[in-house]
Amino acid sequence: MLLAPMEDVTDIGFRLLCRQMGAAMVYSEFVSSDALIRMVNKSLEKLKVCADERPVAIQIYGRDVDAMREAARIVVEQAHPDVLDLNFGCPVKKVAGKGAGAGMLQNVPQMLAITRAVVDAVPDTPVTVKTRLGWDHDHRIIVDLAEQLQDCGIKALTIHGRTRAQMYTGEADWSLIAEVKENPRMHIPIIGNGDITTPERAVEYFERYGVDAIMVGR
After folding, report:
1. For 32-53, what is each residue's pLDDT tens digit?
2. Which of 67, 149, 154, 175 sees the fewest Cβ atoms within 10 Å?
3. Residues with catalytic roles
4. Model's pTM, two decimal places?
């Protein structure tokens, strides 16, 4: 059971609390790559990690290859995270509307270029990705995209079972998450996310869909 990254929620205090409550791993709030390379204090504060919360992942987002590459190096140098996670799933307009977060689902070549660049930039730190099923119902590309991301060298993939168009409405569709997991060409861990609202549902989805881990958010 993993704690999902959540803006204005998963600060160091909340992460520590969730570790004490049994979370196997916790994620930071997402951090802007553009802000990191400008050394904005508020963003640098998000890189603070303590020993008691490990293993911990720091998550970054952005749309520029060079900025994401440099931000990844800054994160590793300052926070020494156990995992560096790339946010390709945030659906909010101020992020996705500018081409970052879930906006990357409309520019897969750029997403893959960023992923390759970050993996190469921090060779001693596992790089993972969190994304969605696709931009909208007619472009649910996750099955093919998962293979492409794996080929970039990521060590795990978290899939939220909604499209960007759905935002947080409707029900998460875990059938496509299961399809990714069942793909014989996939060998990295697949983490399922979306609508895990009770302990019973967590167990049910873990067993039904065969994922390697469950991530709990809102």
Report:
1. 999 999 988 889 999 999 999 9
2. 175
3. 90
4. 0.95
